[in-house]
Amino acid sequence: MNIFKKFRLLFLALIICSYNTNATSNSTEKSNLKENQQVSEVFIERQNEKQFTDTIRINYNENKTILNILKAVPETTMSSWEWSEMDRKKTVDFIEKNNYLIDSTEAYNNIKYIKPNTIGIQVVDGFWTLSIYEFGVNHYFIVTNDSVGDGNDIQTFNYINNKLTPTKMINWFSKCEYDLLLKNSDNCIELVKENELTYTYDFSNKDIVEISSWFLTKDKSQHCFKGNTIKYKLNKDTKTFDIFDVYWENK
């Protein structure tokens, strides 16, 4: 083999060796880049979690009654989530001292509003409310609503002289659909049962409870129902709620 052929073979060998080295180097760089990118994404995600804070101003004296009741309601009213009695007491104690609350969980147990008569809390994919209606001095009617995708878990209590007791009916408003009925025929009763999960409940007004169906419409249901919305008004004299209005609301 002449010198020229030897040189050519040597040159080809060097090229192949250089290509393999570069390929390995590029593969290593890409792998390192991917790992670094994944680490950065995790870091950013965790950093964002830590950075979320929401300061909620709460005047303790103005909301003292409902905050004390918040400590007293049983955990069974929060069956779709969890907020222990101890944690609620710590929360209320903090508000009492500071007149504000720092929320660090954006998507869970996030207080959306608090008023002297009602509290609303966002809970993942649901919403929880506590509302109070004043029957008299140191006597309140309490309503909790744990609203999730499969319906509303409503529970009612009496709160007399700082003592909480369940009402005779777990949910005082459980038969509201029948107050909407125009006819008690079998077909209409069946229609009531079919639409049990279509009702929304508004307990935000200190004197009025509004319950409405988002499914029932006048043109399809007026043969069975007086309306798709009913309002009850607080009656302090009889310590109950009277039917205040029934009507068709456009949906």
Q: Tally the helices: what do you get? A: 6
**Number of individual domains:** 2
* Pattern of helices and strands: HEHHEEEEEEEHHEEHEE
Distance between the termini: 94 Å
Strand order of the largest sheet: 3-4-5-6-7-8
Structure description:
The strands form three sheets. A six-stranded antiparallel sheet has the order 3-4-5-6-7-8, covered by helices on one side. A four-stranded antiparallel sheet has the order 9-10-11-12. It has six helices and twelve strands. The chain has helices spanning 3-51, 64-72, 85-98, 176-180, 186-194, 218-221, and strands at 54-57, 100-103, 110-115, 118-123, 126-136, 139-148, 151-160, 163-166, 199-202, 208-213, 229-235, 240-247. The N and C termini lie far apart (94 Å). The model is unreliable at 3-7 and 38-52 (pLDDT under 50). It is α+β, with helices and mostly antiparallel strands. The chain has two domains: 33-171, no CATH class; 173-251, no CATH class. Strand 5 (126-136) and strand 6 form a beta hairpin.
Summarize this entry quickly.
With 251 residues, the protein is an alpha+beta fold. The protein is 36% helix and 32% strand.
Give the topology, please.
Blueprint: H1 3-51, E1 54-57, H2 64-72, H3 85-98, E2 100-103, E3 110-115, E4 118-123, E5 126-136, E6 139-148, E7 151-160, E8 163-166, H4 176-180, H5 186-194, E9 199-202, E10 208-213, H6 218-221, E11 229-235, E12 240-247
Antiparallel strand pairs: 1-2, 3-4, 4-5, 5-6, 6-7, 7-8, 9-10, 10-11, 11-12
Helix pairs in contact: 2-3
Looking at this protein, list some descriptive labels.
single chain; 251 residues; alpha+beta; 2 domains; six-stranded antiparallel β-sheet; four-stranded antiparallel β-sheet; 6 helices; 36% helix; globular; disordered N terminus; signal
